[in-house]
Amino acid sequence: MEKLLQDIRFGFRQLIKQPSFAALAILSMALGIGANTSIFSLVDTALLRPLAVKEPSQLVELYSTTNQGADWSLQSYPNYKDYRDRNTVFSGLFVYRVVVSSLTVNNSSQRVWGYLVSGNYFDVLGVKPMLGRAFLPEEDQTPDSHPVAVISYNCWQHRFGGDPAIVGKTVEFNSRPFTVIGVAPKGFIGTEVAYDPEMFIPVMMAKTIEPGNNYLEKRDAGNLFTVGRLKPDVSFAQARTALETLTAQLAKDYPQNVGRGIRLGKPGLFIPDIANSVFAFTGVLAAVGALVILLACVNLASLLLARATERQREIAVRLAIGASRRRLVRQLLTESLLISLSGGAAGVFLAAAINRAVRGIRLPSDVTLLFDLRTDWRVLSFALLLSIATGILFSLIPALQSSKPQLVPALKSESSMAGFRRSRLRNFLVVVQVSLSLILLISAGLIVRSLQAAQRMRPGFNPENAVAISFDVSLQGYDEERGRTFQRQVLERAKALPQVEHTALTDYLPLGLNYNDNTVYIEGTEFKGASNLPIAIPIESSPGYFDVMGIPLRGRDFRDDENKKESRVAVVNETFAKKFFNGQDPIGRRFNWHGPQDPFFEIVGVVPDGKYNSLGEDPKPALYTPLYRDYSGTVTLVARTRSAPRQVLSALRGEVQKLDPSISVYAAKTLKEHLGTSLFPARMAAIALGSFGVLALVLAAVGIYGVMSHVVAGRTREIGLRMALGAQLSDVQKLILKQGMFLAAIGSLSGLLIAFGGARMMKSLLYGVSAFDPITFMCVALLLLGIALLACWVPARRASRVEPMIALRAE
C-alpha cells in the first residue's frame, strides 16, 4: 500500500511537471469517456433500466399478426378478455391505451395525456399507489359506470400542488365528474419508458374519455396494448407455444380472427417499429461511441509513447541503479491510470451536461414524451470501469516498450527520439488515429447530408403559407349534432378571414404522431378472410382539402352534400392504384373495408403519393373519404394563407374562442413547423453524430499535434545539426510536414476503405442520400487532411525556429 501511494504521489508530480502533456491526455480521455457515458445513459434508459414495477423481467407484450405474420397490430378488447380468461401461462393480463382528455381544475380546462387501463393494471404490475387505492374489480365490469381516476405523482404535484387531501376529491374529465381514488408512486410511468402519463382511468370509461368510440365491443379492432405477467415456472418459449395454440382456437371460434397470429415482445418502446428504430439508432451510437473511445485511447497511447521516449534517460538511470522492470511498468501504469481516472471524472461531468440537454428536448407536439437520461450509480459505474479498463489496456504497450531501453545509448542520450521514422508503433498509432477520425467524420457527414435532403424532400403537400389548428369538441361534452354545427361554424368563420385563401377540415395531418391504417378489400378479388386483407392509410377530409394542401387531384373532389353514411366515395393515391389495380385507372372501381359482404366505396379521384408517417418510409397506399359522412369530435382545420401565416394562426384561434371559450385549441402551427415532427429524428441523429464528428476532429487534431510536438522536441539536436550544416527554414518545415502528412494520407486511405465497407450500417438512418455518397467521402477526407496539415504545421514552424547552437548544446 505504501508503494502504491508512493507511485501515486510520484505520478502526480510527473504530470504537474508537464502540464501541456497532462492537459492533452486528460482532455482526450474526458471527451471519449464523456461521450460514451452519455451513450450508455441513453442505452440504459431505453433498453437496460428495469421498469419501476415488480419483477419486470416477467412481463410480456402481446401483438396480433396478419398476412402470415407480415403485419402486426394491437389487440382488441374482446380478444383480450379471451386471452385473459383462457390462458394457462400468465398470472395476470392487462390492457392500456394512450388517450388525451380535458381536465378541468378550478374552472380551467387543460389537455392532459394518460392511460385507459383495465382494472387489474396496478395489481398485475405489483404497484401500490402512494396515496389512496387502485381500482376495484367492480370498476372494470360495466361500461361508463365508475368515473374514478388515479393520477400520477407529477400531475398531483404540478396541477394540484401536492394537496395531501386529494384522494376523494372530484375533478372533471371531459366535463364529467371523476373521483380521484389514488396517487401513483413517484417515478411510476407505467410500462413505456418514454411516455409520462398524468392519469389512469378504467378502460370501461372509454365512451366518456373518447366520445363516439365503441371499440370495446369490436373484435376486429386493434387499439389496446396488452401485457401479461408470466407465471414463475413458465418460460418465454413455453408462453409463445401456448398462446399460438390459443390463438388458433380463437380463429375457430370467431370468424374475425381467421388468419390472425400472435407475436410476443417486451414492453417499453410502444410498438415493434419504434423498438426496431431505437435498436438501430442505439446500435449506431454504440458503434460510434466505441470508435470515439478507441480514438481517445489511441491518442493516449501515442502521447504516452512519445513521452516515454523523452524519458528514456530517466528510465535507464533507474534501471542502472537497481530498479526492476516490473517496478517501472507499475509506476508507468499508475501514471496512466491517474490520467484516465482524471479524464473519467471530467467525462462524467460532460455526460451529465449532455444528459441535462437531452432531458430538455421537447418534441414539437403536446404529447408528454419523456427523455429521462440519468447520471445514476449504473452510469457512474460504467464510467469508472471504462476509465480503469482504458487506462490499463492502452498504456500497457507503451509501458512495456519504454521499460526496456538500451542502457548505454540511453545513458549517453543517444537514443532520445532517434528519429520519427524509426518508431513503427508510434507511426501505426497516428495512422489509426486518422483512420478512426475519418470514419466518424464520414458517419456524421452522411447524417448531416441526410438532414439536408430531408428538409428539401417534398412530403406530398405544399407547406408554404399554410397553417393548421386542432380542437376536440367531444372533450367538452358536445354531442354529434352540436359538434357538427360547431365544426362548420369554425370552417365558415375561417373562410371569411381576409388573409385566408382556402380552408378545410381533416382528421389526419400527414407526418404527425397519428399512426393509423385499415384493411381494404377490392371488389372482384378473392376473399381469404379479413385477417389476410392488405392495409392502407385512411384519411377523412372535407371538400377543398386538396386545394389547401396543394395536392394535385385527377378526378373530382368531395361535395358538401356527401355527408351521410350512404356517401361512399373515395380518392386514392397512386400507390393504391398501382398496388391494387395493376396501374390501371382506378376511377370508377370499388372497394370496402372488410370483404364482399359490405357496401362498396367508389373511387372518384387520384392524387400523387405523399409521406404519411415518416419521411423515410416507402410509398404506402392511402385513401381519402368524406369527413362529414363519419362524425369525429376531433378535427384539424387547415388553411392556406395569402401571407403572414403566424398572424392567421392567432386569428383562427380567436375565432374558435369566440364560438366557445371552453374549447381548447392545440397543435396550432404552420405546416413548415409541423414538418419539424417528422424531421425530429433526423435532427437528433444529425446533432448526435455531428457532435461525435466534431469530437473526432478535435481528438485527431489533439493527437496529431501532441505526437508531432513531442517528436519535434525530441529531434531538437538533429534539427539544430541540419541547420548548422546549411539546411533552410523551409527545408526543416518540409521535413516535419512530409513525415506527418505521409502518415495522415495512409490513415485517410485506410479510413476511406473501412468507411466504404461499413457504410451499409447507416442506411436505416439516412433520407434521400446514398450511404456511399461520394461528395461526403471526398469533402470529409479533404477536411481531415487540412486539419492534419495544420496540426503538423504548428510543430514544424516551431522546429524551424530552433537556434542551432542552443540545440547542439541541449544535452
Beta strands, count: 23
Shape: elongated
Q: Give the overall average pLDDT.
A: 84
Could you tell me the radius of gyration in angstroms? 33 Å
- Structural class comes to alpha+beta
State the low-pLDDT regions, or none: 414-422
Assembly of the depicted chains: single chain
Percent helix, as a range, is 40-55%
Strand content: 15-25%
Gap between N and C termini: 37 Å
Major beta sheet summary: 8 strands, mixed
Figure out the total of helices.
Answer: 22
Notable features of this structure?
22 helices, single chain, 8-stranded mixed beta sheet, about 800 residues, 6-stranded mixed barrel, alpha+beta
Blueprint of the fold:
Layout (H helix, E strand, L loop, with lengths): L1 H16 L1 H30 L10 E8 L4 E3 L3 H10 L3 E16 L2 E10 L3 H5 L5 E2 L15 E4 L1 H8 L9 E4 L2 E8 L15 E4 L3 H4 L15 E6 L5 H18 L7 E5 L6 H39 L1 H9 L4 H35 L17 H26 L4 H5 L12 H33 L9 E7 L7 H17 L3 E7 L11 E2 L1 E2 L12 E7 L3 H5 L4 E2 L13 E5 H8 L8 E3 L8 E7 L14 E5 L7 E8 L3 H15 L5 E6 H44 L1 H9 L4 H30 L15 H27 L3 H5 L3
Parallel strand pairs: 4-9, 6-8, 16-21, 18-20
Antiparallel strand pairs: 1-2, 1-10, 1-11, 3-4, 3-7, 3-10, 5-8, 6-9, 7-8, 12-22, 12-23, 13-22, 14-16, 15-19, 17-20, 18-21, 19-20
Helix pairs in contact: 1-10, 2-8, 2-10, 2-11, 2-18, 3-7, 8-11, 8-13, 8-18, 10-11, 13-18, 13-20, 13-21, 14-17, 18-21, 20-21
Task: Describe the protein's architecture and organization.
This protein has 22 helices and 23 strands. The protein is elongated and about 100 Å long. Helix 10 packs antiparallel against helix 11 (about 375-400) and helix 13 (about 425-455) packs antiparallel against helix 18. The strands form 3 sheets. Strands 14, 15, 16, 17, 18, 19, 20 and 21 form an 8-stranded mixed β-sheet that branches. It is of the alpha+beta class and about 800 residues long. The protein starts with a helix and ends with a helix.
